[in-house]
Design goal:
There is one protein chain. Helix 1 runs antiparallel to helix 2 and helix 4 packs across helix 10. The mean pLDDT is 90. The chain is mainly α and 214 residues long. The chain is built from ten helices and four strands.
Length: 214
Amino acid sequence: MLPEDLMLLFINEQNGKLHTDSSSVENALAGAVLIELVNSGRVAFDPNGKKLQVVDPTPLKDPLLQESVARFDKPMKPQRAVERLRKKVRDNVAAQLEGRGVVRVESRKVLGIFPAKSYVITDETAAGGVRKAVGEVALGYRGADARTGALITLLYAVKSVHKVVAGDKRDMNKRAKDIAAGNWAGDAVRRAVEAIQAGVVAATAAAAAASQGG
């Protein structure tokens, strides 16, 4: 799924830490979950096209998605949906990867005091496949499909394309901007992804402002 692929991209395979700050990671992962819910047909825009709501209550087999769709207790704007879905999303996605034997989660301490986690990639084939696919698109070797287009759009929303793919930052950001506005998805999904991208950007900016204010 998109959230799992995105989490693998965020993991620094050299040291098990994340390539960017936790707030950006969680907002992007929440956006990926939201895209999956839209693709599943469980969540869609209301008739006014401004708020997302549950349109099909049929249970989902994936526990992460099922738990996430349950958080839609009422229609909400994309930013609010991202903020609602990001709670524990990193731990939940990491747990699914660990359950599949792709990642091992380890406890550590920052400065010997603050608890944190490291993510050791144990299935390099799976992780390498995601990095290769996204890297080829980010570097312009091939065009985006629905999967890589969504991943790069979410990475671009939290300014992290150059952090997970080695290459010229300016060139990759320009290409990612074009991909984010591209036609790799159908109209309905494209509109939803654009709104989710905007929601991720807004949620990330709000979290940064709150952090600076504190």
